[in-house]
Amino acid sequence: MKVLLVEDEPGLVSVIVRGLTEAGMEVSVAADGNMGLEMAQTHSFDIIILDIMLPGMNGIQVCKEIRKQNDSVAILMLTALSSTENIVTGLNSGADDYLAKPFKFPELEARIRTLVRRSKIGSAPKNVISIAGLEVDTLSKTAKRDNKNIALTATEYHLLEYFAKNQNMVLSRIQILENVWDIDFNMGTNVVDVYVNYLRKKIDNGYDVKLIHTVFGMGYIFKEQAPDETSN
Ligand code: CA
């Protein structure tokens, strides 16, 4: 995880750098606002920790400038005063969260991890369901595995989307029939097995990690499972 720390207080910088490095993060430091902005614009970081009171450009201005070009990087503001006004100004300038000084180091680390996780989730397109290199795009109704397009018929696509939206759940043949074929009379669940086999050939054949699994006597389950787990 790459962290940019923009902070001018040497004592605090060394404490944060040591702690985050020990936690396995890669930390770059800028000691004033202008340098911080330049580094944020020229390098890629997972999170920027930004002090408000800085020499040169202050943290609020730096944050606004970063946000003009970059919506996705997580920004955690450090505020010396926990006054409501300071916090509101910080968040209005585009920061994701703030931490009031003085703070305990574990709190900083926890905030960083939460923000980075949240920003990663937020940046994934909401219409794409991903699992084990398979991407199902529910807008364009297409699928890829390891970036290779998979040609699917309409029924195969609907079956795949139903599986992808109901991962890790045992789905009976009747359930699949009702949801994918949209009929409530029993036309014979054989058709489900036939289509599951078509789909299997297209999305699982040739891949180590299989997604479609038969649950004997019950139906099917769609989940990520490496070959060495299949005996479970
Ligand atoms: Ca400062």
Structure, described:
With 232 residues, the protein is an alpha/beta fold. The protein folds into two domains: 2-123, Response regulator (Rossmann fold, 3-Layer(aba) Sandwich); 128-222, Arc Repressor Mutant, subunit A. The chain is built from eight helices and twelve strands. The strands form three sheets. A five-stranded parallel beta sheet has the order 2-1-3-4-5, with helices on both faces. The chain has a four-stranded antiparallel beta sheet with strand order 6-7-8-9, covered by helices on one side. Strand 4 (74-79), helix 4 and strand 5 form a beta-alpha-beta unit. Helix 2 packs parallel to helix 3 (59-69), helix 6 crosses helix 7 and helix 6 (154-165) packs across helix 8 (190-203). It is elongated and about 75 Å long. It starts with a strand and ends in a 7-residue tail after the last strand. It binds calcium ion.
